[in-house]
Amino acid sequence: MRSTLLSFSLYLLFGCSIAMATPEVGQANTHEFQLSNGLKLIVREDHRAPTVAHMVWYRAGSMDEVNGKTGVAHVLEHMMFKGTHKVKSGEFSRLVAAVGGRENAFTSRDYTAYFQQVEKSKLDEVMRLEADRMSNLNFDDAEFLKEIQVVMEERRLRTEDNPNSLLNESLTATAYMSSPYRHPVVGWMNDLVNMKAIDARDWYRSWYKPNNATVVIAGDVNPKVILKAVEKYYGVASAKELPERKPQIEPVQKGIKRVQVKAPADSAQLAMAWKVPKLEVARLDDDEPYALELLSAVLDGYDNARLNRTLVKQERVVNDVGVGYDMISRGPELFFISSSMAKGKTVQQAESSIRKALKEVVDKGILESELKRVKVRILSDQIYKRDSIFGQAMEIGSTEMAGFSWKDIDVMLEKMQTITPAQVQAVAKKYLVDEGLTIAVLDPQPRQSGEAKQGGNRDAK
């Protein structure tokens, strides 16, 4: 996953010029409200097009699940389209399409979110539908039994028939000992096989409450008008005490962990993950997470970045290489490097090349010009994000779900501007060490005749 902060980079270097070109986008045009039932409303005005993105974010994802019921957050996401007392199963999507809108939903480790994007005059209609299923979801056991089969097939296609997904799943499950991040969002197959309709209903009753939800509306809207509409539709929902969220602190790792996965594939794969810090709400000025963000971009932020240039183009030891780090999240974080072997090359050769490239950063650091180029590249990759109504709503919602405020985004960007090459070098030296490293290797097995190379994709619902 590409980092969250990189997606905010529109402000990084040309914040003033962007503000002048699009004055409607920014903090001055973002409004926050709190309803009496605990629901948070955030409205972003952007009058450049007569469209609106309407999103409801529930702070309940796979990290809130318990053993034996993994995947229930994602299953409930599917069931949310199965009707209420007023709307029959399947009607939700049809009604949104009937007004010319698009809609979907997604579940992550930290949250579950639902969205519609419509012409501004149709906002009330989708708001009414979404508010209805916040309080009045109604599905029978037969609907659940059909949908759980869909979810199991989704797991087969996206994970069990996909060697890259299998490797990442094993890597995560090995790296984490106590954190619920060790479980896949889609759930373990055995838990899905044994899941009952009551499990999904219990999840809904526990977490789908206004005091655990944030509504984000971005587009051609009037905040005062929106507040009245939200109070009308969502204000009738009753707040409820939420389940206690117990801290599940990950124990300190004290040495390399290794895991091997055997699966049909065309080539061997290598994935390496280090335990690293994330940004904490109370410590927005902590240098290290920002430096880790920039380190990930130095290694893999553009076509000729360090790892791609060295491993793919020069040494030709791997076919591809990727780096991932997410600075803001509810749970602990990892710094990932993954690659697939070039023909005739071994995993040992790839690991050696990666370690050599990282040692060069640790020993010699990075150049000021290199860091500046990364920031410019980040900006060029993200420059059109502010033209997306949906993108703005996504940025606000995901930041809020991690426990931060949308107001913190500018603070983060300003802080990242201050990070120096020495600080990037320091985090590489401190955290990319064997004590906190987990290594996963895919041992490719022969494919059966006619077997698909990779699982397909299925819509979220």
From TrEMBL:
InterPro entries: Metalloenz_LuxS/M16, MPP/UQCRC_Complex, Pept_M16_N, Pept_M16_Zn_BS, Peptidase_M16_C. Its cofactor is Zn(2+). PROSITE patterns: INSULINASE, PROKAR_LIPOPROTEIN. Residues 1-21 form the signal peptide. Keywords: Signal. GO terms for molecular function: metal ion binding; metalloendopeptidase activity. Residues 42-185 form the Peptidase M16 N-terminal domain. One of its GO terms (biological process) is proteolysis. Pfam families: Peptidase_M16, Peptidase_M16_C. Gene3D superfamilies: Metalloenzyme, LuxS/M16 peptidase-like (3.30.830.10). Residues 199-375 form the Peptidase M16 C-terminal domain. Belongs to the peptidase M16 family. This is Zn-dependent peptidase. It comes from Polynucleobacter duraquae.
